[in-house]
Amino acid sequence: MVRDRIALIAYRDNSCDPKKCTMKKLERFGMLRLVNRIPQIPKSTLLLDPTAGVVLSPADRAWVQSVTALDCSWEVLDTANLGPWKGRRALPFLVAANPVNFGKPFTLTSVEAIAATLYILGEEEQAKTILAKFHWGLNFLALNAEPLAEYAAARDSAEVLKIQSEYIG
C-alpha cells in the first residue's frame, strides 16, 4: 500500500528568532505550511504538545493525515487556550541533536519533533528528508536510533511509555 506523505504544519507566533527557525527554513523549501493563528490549525491534525496527556505511538498512523508543531516559545504559550484537539500528542523521551541544546533530553527543535513523529509513525524517509536540510539534522536520528526504533515498533501509547521508562527510569 502506498501512502501519501503526511502534511506538515507549524503554528508560529513569532516569539522565537526567525534566523534560527527550523520551521521557516522548511517552509522556504516547500516542505511545510506555516500558520500564525490558532484557528488556522486543522482540528483533525496530530498536534504536537509536550503537555498532552497521551504519548505518540505507531497506532496513531491509522488516522494521521497531518502533523502540526507548535513553533513558539514555551514560556509564552498557554496550551490550555489551544482548544479540544483529540489528536494532541506528546513525544516520548528523546535527546536533542541541534547545536543549541545538543544532548539535552526533551529540548528538541520543531524540526526534530516533527521528524521524530514521522519516524515513530513509520515515515522514516520523510523524516530523513526534512532533517537533511540542516547540517546537524541527520545526527538527530543517529543519536536517537535505539529509542526511535523501539518506539516505532511499539503497539500503542502504553507500550511507548513502558519503553520510555527504560531510558529515564
UniProtKB/TrEMBL annotation:
This is 16S rRNA aminocarboxypropyltransferase. Its main location: cytoplasm. Keywords: Cytoplasm, Ribosome biogenesis, rRNA processing, S-adenosyl-L-methionine, Transferase. It is an enzyme of class 2 (transferase). Belongs to the TDD superfamily. TSR3 family. The keyword Isomerase does not apply. Aminocarboxypropyltransferase that catalyzes the aminocarboxypropyl transfer on pseudouridine corresponding to position 914 in M.jannaschii 16S rRNA. It constitutes the last step in biosynthesis of the hypermodified N1-methyl-N3-(3-amino-3-carboxypropyl) pseudouridine (m1acp3-Psi). Residues 46-168 form the 16S/18S rRNA aminocarboxypropyltransferase Tsr3 C-terminal domain. NCBIfam families: PRK02287.1. Residues 14-37 form the RNase L inhibitor RLI-like possible metal-binding domain. It catalyses: an N(1)-methylpseudouridine in rRNA + S-adenosyl-L-methionine = N(1)-methyl-N(3)-[(3S)-3-amino-3-carboxypropyl]pseudouridine in rRNA + S-methyl-5'-thioadenosine + H(+).
